[in-house]
Write a structure and sequence with these properties.
six-stranded mixed β-sheet, alpha+beta, Rossmann fold, 27% helix, 21 strands
């Protein structure tokens, strides 16, 4: 969608045939193909830590453990089970403290589980913590050989890979300097270069790539794709939801040490977003309760508390939507220039996305927005009424801003986004949202309603009329003529 999309806001008040009798061919009688061999098998894993309130309690526990218990138990993981096949990329997501790093350390073998078992087939390479496995007094070169030896490679094998490792890390002369002089970015460059060039059977990455710059991250993701195509199994932990969605095919959501959800990456990321929203809403509700003066709870009045007049369980009952439901996306349409519904667009054709929202309470600072994802799950663009407000404020155009308006309960607010279609051929999903933006620059957001798969459309191309490659058309044009650049004057001419 073009960045020149212009929104306007108006108010309106008001089972197939099984073929049992068909003869079977030899192919029908053949057994199904074997699944990919299992590389990681986690069975009922739990990890318990003993928490002591005072240092002397640890000593008492050692000598008097038959009398009483001097510690409290904290279970970082409980009954976690899953399998990962060869060549799979599986994401592990969850809030801080959910047990992600503990699980990866158990799989890598640096921690022992309290209960359950872990079986890993083949060589494991892990980026668990920044600089883990490095001796900070050694040079980068020495640490390359140290890590290679730990992973079971001979000096000759490391020699054969050293140039590729140094080239990927790209830290120049710092390779012969002590690691303790490295910046965090240089440290993760070298660590990642070592692990991926040693061709492991299982690669574990725990948030390490968040430190690198954008160019290095791009190279890392390309290398991870190459490794996965070559049969390397990848366990990937990141708080970047789009990276998990695009890099991995399956994902596991951990919450308080237990598996909350498991499935395709897109489904689990949606569950993760819903979990974050529910916890954020509970936090703000708790904060509001603390600020409220102690008083007997009144009967429900005309102005209810946040979300009280709408059954929030309705959001959870819909697999593809969530939110506080103080406002609700009730209609999403993709149309042509004259409002006719369309599902196929060609480059240059006008496209309109219409989103209608019903308000269940008085609201201000609204932002009605959409996001486009292609069939590969990549976010192509997002835009909303607040984006248009920000642009108008920067241009000092004086147009009324949606963000400044107040809306009444029961009203239907409709936003229309329109512009030329510049998208490459693909299937696109429209995600529609209505949010309350307490800050006019997206710094404080409350999700009122989010709908995945709100609408779909295709784009195509006619090579004889209009053709381009990639995700979108930038609208560039070739100059009609190419003039030769003026040649530099000779040394003699400059002397004269």
């Amino acid at each position: 969608m073009s960045s020149d999309v212009t929104p306007t806001t108006t108010l309106v008040d008001g089972v197939p045939d099984t073929g049992k009798d068909a003869p079977r061919s030899d192919d029908d009688l053949a057994p199904p193909p074997d699944p990919a061999p299992c590389v990681v098998r986690v069975e009922g894993v739990g990890k318990c830590y003993h928490i002591y309130d005072r240092p002397q309690d640890r000593l008492k526990q050692a000598f008097f453990r038959w009398r009483r218990t001097y510690h409290r138990e904290f279970w970082a993981l409980r009954d976690v089970s899953f399998e990962v096949g060869r060549g799979e990329a599986v994401g592990i997501v969850g809030r801080n403290g959910s047990g992600k790093s503990t699980l990866l350390q158990i799989i890598a073998g640096t921690l022992t589980p309290t209960t359950g078992s872990v079986h890993v087939a083949g060589r494991v390479a892990a980026l668990l913590e920044l600089g883990s496995g490095f001796n900070h007094d050694f040079t980068g070169r020495e640490n390359v050989y140290l890590n290679g030896a730990v992973l079971g490679l001979s000096k000759r094998e490391i020699d054969d890979r050293f140039d590729a490792i140094a080239g990927f890390a790209d830290i120049g002369d710092f390779l012969d300097q002590p690691v303790k002089t490295y910046s965090s970015g240089m440290l993760v460059r070298l660590a990642f270069a070592v692990q991926v060039q040693l061709e492991p059977d299982l690669l574990i990455v725990d948030e390490a790539l968040a430190v690198g710059d954008a160019l290095f991250q791009k190279r890392c993701y390309q290398r991870l794709e190459e490794l996965r195509s070559g049969g390397v199994t990848i366990l990937f932990v990141s708080h970047d939801q789009e990276s998990v969605r695009t890099l991995t095919s399956r994902a596991v959501l951990l919450h308080h040490g237990s598996v909350r959800a498991m499935g395709t990456a897109a489904e689990v990321v949606l569950d993760y977003r819903r979990l974050l929203h529910d916890e954020e809403r509970a936090y703000f509700q708790h904060a509001a309760d603390r600020l409220r003066r102690p008083a007997p709870r009144p009967a429900p009045a005309v102005a209810p508390a946040v979300g009280a007049d709408v059954d929030a369980s309705h959001a959870r009952s819909d697999r593809l939507s969530f939110g506080a439901l103080e406002a609700e996306v009730v209609d999403v349409r993709v149309t042509g220039a004259h409002g006719e519904e369309k599902t196929l667009f060609y480059p240059g054709e006008p496209i309109r996305i219409e989103i209608a929202c019903m308000l269940h309470r008085d609201l201000d600072h609204l932002n009605i927005a959409f996001r486009l994802r292609n069939k590969q799950g990549v976010k192509v663009t997002s835009w909303g009424t607040l984006n248009d407000d920000i642009r108008n404020w920067s241009r000092a155009e004086g147009r009324p801003a949606t963000w400044d308006r107040s809306f009444r309960k029961g009203q239907v607010v409709r936003a229309v986004f329109e512009g030329p279609c510049i998208l490459g051929p693909n299937l696109y999903e429209v995600q529609a949202t209505v949010t309350q933006e307490l800050d006019p620059h997206y710094k404080s957001q409350r999700i009122l309603h989010w709908r995945d798969e709100a609408a779909f459309f295709h784009t195509g191309q006619s090579a004889a009329q209009y053709s381009f490659g990639g995700v979108c058309d930038l609208g560039l044009a070739t100059t009609a003529s190419v003039e030769p650049a003026p040649s530099a004057p000779s040394e003699g001419a400059r002397a004269r």
